[in-house]
Amino acid sequence: MSNFANRFRIRTPYSILGEEGKKRIHEAALDVMQKTGIRIHSETARASLKREGAIIAPNGTDVKFPPGLVEELISRAPSKIVLAGRTPEFDLPLDGTHSYYTTDGCGIQVWDSVKGVRRKSLLEDIRQTAIISDYLPYVSIYEPMVVAQDVPEKTHVIHGVKVAMENTSKHILTESTTKPGEARAQVKMASEVVGGVEELRKRHYISAMVCTMSPLVLEGPCTEAAMVWAENHVPVHITGMAQTGISGPATIAGDLAVNHAETLALACAMQAHEPGAPCLYGSVLSSLDPVTGSYMGGSPESTILCAAAVEMGRYCKMPISTGGLGSGAKVPGTRASMENALSAAMCAVAGGEVVNGLGVIDGSTLLSYEQLLFDNEIAGMTVRIFAGFEITEETLAVDLIKKVGIGGTYLSQRHTMTHIRDFYKPLAWGSYVTDELSFTGSGDHVEQARTKIGEILKDHTPEPLDLDVRKRLDGVVGEFGKV
After folding, report:
1. 47 located within any domain
2. What CATH number is attached to the domain comprising 338?
3. Residues 297 and 317 in one domain
4. Residue 483: is its pLDDT beyond 80?
């Protein structure tokens, strides 16, 4: 295991739902899948499920799952996988003992902290945030963070992934794919980087987010894209987004049941189509504002939902991805950081393996460079807290305690000099003496973060892609634009 992956190791998770609670939610979802069914608009997925014994309703799109079929199909999915970096240094084993963090994607605006206004998102924002993420120690996975509005809409996904591949060596998660053609183009690009399609099947350099459509629908082109990912063994983060009271019941247990049914349905379709295709139980669940009905990412209910979904994924023995950050705050700063910190901690308690959401707020629509830096600190502190600590002769330091004795000091001891090197050190703010700072509110730290971002972009150069590979990626983008 690489030192990078080891940085994210955490202690054994706690249970939030308990075995009986998980069992009841699972059985409720199976009951819904058997008697109500899932509407699946993908002909490929329906045909694959029908071959395995699923029942297609007369309307041609609703699919029901007989008893035992769900368990049979999801048992084919691997319980452990490795999300690979461009280089092995950044390989991330999903084995239940780590908590990794990924940037969020699909932002359509960018926060200008100097002017205090929003601007449109550009391809340059993907390049810069990829470089920043390549540098930041607690960004495990890079997900292109915005929809680039300065390239053709038809090709923005392909452009974004290409720029990401060129500017970070870390694993890449692609979110915005909505069509099978886009998936095929990205498979081709990733294959160029790792050395062929067969190598990509073994070395999962990219993974893909595919969303279900709550309640109980698998949308057509996205699901067809999932079938392409499955054929090429690109891991799919199956991402249900049921919102309490709107696309799911207004109760946590009911919302989890809807999400569980949708997640299992897509997992089953993938395994029916390509047995052994890697998939992750990925959920970004949320509550509604009881006053306005709007999205409430970061609320206590949303936090519980995301953490509980982690447990449901573990119940099914699937690798886990969850929306652990993603505040509903409209601007970066205090509220966003507070909500993200509580949510990240709760997901770590539950044992979330891939925790999504760094750097994008307001319902995953607004990128903030400064919030990305703050969220890196939240990830780092969360991992440090939940890593626990060792109890050994060296760490107990009984001989040292006796040596220093009553009323002494440990400051001059070699033991102290050795072990303080392991203390957490923040990047977003310095260790300043209080009276050296001119406190003017949150703007102080925002300004420090903005300065640090500038330093990273000036000084950090990611490991470049081979020039021939870059030319071949240009060719894939050009071919896709002609289709």
Report:
1. no
2. 3.20.20.480
3. yes
4. no
- Spell 179-213 as b/e; 16+ CB within 10 A means b: bbbbbbbbbbbbbbbbeeeeebbebbbbbbbbbbb
The dihedral through the CA atoms of 370, 117, 102, 478 has a sign that is: negative
pLDDT in tens, 167-188: 999 999 999 899 999 999 999 9
Cβ–Cβ under 8 Å, residues 373 and 452? yes
Element (H, E) at 218: strand 217-218
pLDDT digit string, tens, across residues 311-325: 999 999 999 999 989
Within a domain: 182:
yes
Q: How far is CA 167 from the centre of its chain?
A: 19
367 φψ region: left (φ > 0), alpha (ψ -120 to 50), beta (else): beta
Residue 416 — pLDDT band, cuts 50, 70, 90? very high
Instruction: Name the nearest CA neighbour of 44 among 224, 271, 226.
Output: 224
What are the DSSP calls for 416-470, one per residue?
A: HHHHGGGS---SSS----GGGS---STHHHHHHHHHHHHHHHHH--PPPPPHHHH
In this prediction the pTM is: 0.93
C-alpha closest to that of 1 among 78, 77, 79, 85? 85
Q: What span, in angstroms and rounded, lies between the C-alpha atoms of 403 and 461?
A: 47
Asked if residue 397 and residue 295 are part of one domain, the reply reads no
| CB neighbour list of residue 199: distance below 8 Å, 6 or more residues apart | 191
Predicted confidence (pLDDT) per residue in 97-130, tens digit: 999 999 999 899 999 999 999 999 999 999 999 9
Kindly state whether residues 410 and 338 are assigned to the same domain: no
Among the candidates 386, 407, 436, a domain finishes at: 386
Using the structure block, give the residue that is written with the tokens 């203390």. 423
What range defines the domain where residue 406 resides? 393-422
Q: 417 and 311, same structural domain?
A: no
Q: Are residues 11 and 158 in the same domain?
A: yes
d(CA 473, CA 411): 55
pLDDT band for 250, please (50, 70, 90 cuts): very high
In terms of Cβ atoms closer than 10 Å to its own Cβ (0-12, 13-18, 19+), residue 20 is exposed
Same domain as 256, residue 361: yes
Closest CA to 227 of 258, 192, 189, 184: 184
Q: Considering the domain boundaries, does residue 466 fall inside one?
A: no
Q: Are 377 and 340 in contact (CB under 8 A)?
A: no
Q: Domain check: are 377 and 413 in the same one?
A: no
Domain boundary among 363, 386, 409: 386
Query: 50 lies in a domain?
Result: no
Are 135 and 178 within one domain?
yes
Residues linked to residue 357 through DSSP beta bridges, in sequence order: none
3-state secondary structure of 332: coil
Burial class (CB in 10 A: 0-12, 13-18, 19+), 168: buried
Domains in the chain: how many in total? Answer: 2
